[in-house]
Amino acid sequence: MAMKMKKRPGTNDPAKPKRSAYDKALGLLARREHSRKELKTKLRQGGYEGDEAVAALDRLGEQHYQDDDRFAEVLLRSRIAQGYGPVRLRQELKSHGLADARIRELMDEAEVDWGASAAAQLRRRYGGKGAADPAERARRAQFLLRRGFAAATVRNVTHADVDDADDIS
Prior knowledge:
This protein is mostly helical. It has helices at residues 21-31, 36-45, 50-62, 68-81, 86-95, 100-110, 114-126, 134-146, 151-158, 162-165. 27% of the residues are buried.
């Protein structure tokens, strides 16, 4: 016996007019902050033409509904709270189309003690006891490197030789 799948109301309904790029982008922004680049990609995937998407993004920017600086600050605070390091944060901000100079400013304004943050991640992941053998220290160093902490910070926190940590996987 074949079951009929119920369609969500309003999907692919020919009688329903397509939302404007502005309305679509505003709906996305109502859920969370987005970068201009991210919104442009989502609009393109939604079938909106370049000119309509650019006009909608310009209008949202003029109305202060979309702001790359605000997006970057929110993302940065969120990722720092999640325990990610500066290398990962720089890469993620760059992937959203932010300029290197602005990324440096944001990172400086954040005033994070990366050593303390890395140590907190180690405590959260491995508990309070230290690593007894070099292999365990290397595993912990790799964990911090994957989270985006700089090699010097990882070396200080784990007391592992980070350069040799790749060999012990």
